[in-house]
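Holo prediction. Input below; ligand is adenosine monophosphate.
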Amino acid sequence: MANENKEEDNTQEFSESLKFSDLGLSPEVLEGVSRAGYETPSPIQAKAIPILLRGENLLGTAQTGTGKTAAFTLPLLSRLDFNKNETSMLVLSPTRELAVQVAEAVQHFAVAMQHVHIVPVYGGQDIGVQFRALKRTPQIIVATPGRLIDHLERGSINLSHIQAVVLDEADEMLDMGFMEDVEKILSKIPETAQRGLFSATMPVSVKKIIDHHLGNYSEACIAAKTATVDKVRQRYLTVHSEQKMEALARVLEGEPYDGVLIFVRTKQETSEIAERLEARGFNAAPLSGDLAQAMRERTVNRLKTGKIDVVVATDVAARGLDVDRISHVINYDIPYDTESYVHRIGRTARAGREGNAILFITPRERRMLKMIERATRKPIEPMEIPSGDQISEHRVSAFKQKILDTIEKGGLEEFRNLVESLAEEKEFTPLDIAAAVTLLAQAGQPLFPEMKDISAIPDREDRRSKFNGREDSFGVGERSRAPRKENDNGIEEGFSRYYMGVGRFQHVSPRDIVGAIAGESGISSSEIGRIKLFDRFSTVELPQDIAPEILHILEEMQVRGNPSRFRLMTDDKPLPEESSGSSHFGSKRREGGRPFRDRPFSERGDRPFHKTRRFGRH
Ligand code: AMP
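Structure of the complex:
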């Protein structure tokens, strides 16, 4: 039976003054941390690292965005013995996307460690490629459960020397139907192995795994203390990581602001983003622990006096920052916990002024949003990324204002004469000349810019109502049941229906189908629509915007050991089973110019459903 020891809940105070070097990590790992540009441990890191370093089992209640990957990677890299030619550490991830991200993170942190070889193993990638990578017996494997079982059955992975195993995002993993696989995998791990489990929520399935497999454990959780932030108008923007910079620039153009404080996670990011903003014409400067005290003070003074308007800071550097004219706090990178969020947005709405807080969240960080809303007891409004037209409108009106101000200011006599003589000389109208001068004046910041549409990703509520209504399938979380809108063929709006050559005769259940699709492709289980099961085949509805690469992966997927024979249904009714599983997609795998082994995991042979977040942004 489990025996819990909760770590004292005083993280905020102690993590802010705590350094990574105080935690007892190995010098090689500290080197990796420093290269990643991390200044201080996040709360979950401050709590989990000592527990794992002591060799104890760990239950971590934390979601994506809290820094949980480093929370288990750093201590295990420090503690385990990687000098043998055997697989010592295993991380189980629910999706290929996460497996790749975690493997990349581990690789970065292990950069100063010799002999540590990491292989991610996930469905959808050619298994032959994985066989070759596994021949060298990696010390660390990051795997999705389904594909790991495949390898265990084929003897290409041996778990008998595992010293530590981590279940990452356990709730998502079990939600996807991987319970049986996870139990099977854990039963093959030596009793003596250290165990870690991270989960954002604690459904019964996760509790079952904890009871059966975690043994005695200590717990690290992030407290969601409530706090009021009444005077601040809070909004959020869901955006993919790679679009954040563009979104930031547009938000800054679209919002009337006085002073802006932008929060990022690493020192490198402070200078990188400040430079990129400057290049776009914003008056910006970085503020990080890397700068000497005098320089930091100078930057704060320049913000106070209006010599600069935008400061890009880390939490540590902005601690105690008190500048009345900060009208906006932008959380470019989501804070690690709610306390830090409240602390950050408390930098605005000072001295009786109005304040605005804008939070950028990537799709995977949506849970953090809910947590913040709960802790602050206030809903955070969604906001739109300003469109090209809105930016144009803004620029035009600012330009007009500048001209009016200049006319009002006077002193134009010489210039008026110049325009007049040019008009007479060349027989132009003054209007032609004014238009030419306007065109010249806007160079660098076009008044009518051609901007790509990067509209914000619909928030979770929208997606829920869009993707709910699954029939015949197992319940995934507490999805609300809004009325399903169907087209004439009975397919949900925005979805396409796909055929799979597996059905009841193959002992396939909807749970197997959801598990296979989610596990192989990274499509979230909440995005999988109605599933219908027949004796020899089944149908599944999936969103229409799925990338061809992903469809190709699904064609190659297996469900309960049977080829899926997945393909788009071109008929409105379920088709009788066909003898050949010919493909309608014919998409090509991406072929990079670099040799396979030199490419990052995320580029090896296939692409994740959503483009992966870059590790550490450095
Ligand atoms: P995770 O919750 O593990 O997915 O991490 C979220 C993001 O935070 C990743 O981009 C990490 O590189 C970054 N991160 C994690 N820990 C730290 C830290 N102590 N300092 C700065 N960035 C961090």
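The first strand starts at residue 3 and ends at 6. That is the main takeaway for now.
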